[in-house]
Amino acid sequence: MSDVQSTSTTERLAEVQHQLADGLARIDPHHRLLGRPVGYRLIDGHTFEITYRDVAGIAEAEVLGVKRLLGRDCYCTVSPQTAETITVRFVVSLK
What we know:
- This protein has one domain: Threonyl-tRNA Synthetase, Chain A, domain 2 (2-Layer Sandwich), CATH 3.30.980.
- The protein is α+β, with helices and mostly antiparallel strands.
- The chain has two helices and four strands; from the N terminus they run H-E-E-H-E-E.
- A four-stranded antiparallel sheet has the order 1-2-4-3, covered by helices on one side.
């Protein structure tokens, strides 16, 4: 990856993280995602994965809120983590 592409990708990643930090409190009134362990991972230089762990539950409205907040092509998966918690994963295109 060239330095120009790397800088552009880094800026887009920072923008996504900033959008989440600013908007999550508004769209997550029950704090299902806010304050949960979160991981960020760049996939193939063009896709960004955001993973929330130890989530007690999530409503469709909250998933849609995150998608609107990110304002990009975004996909969400929800999978069991333990008997009481789930993992919520958003995959965002950075193109």
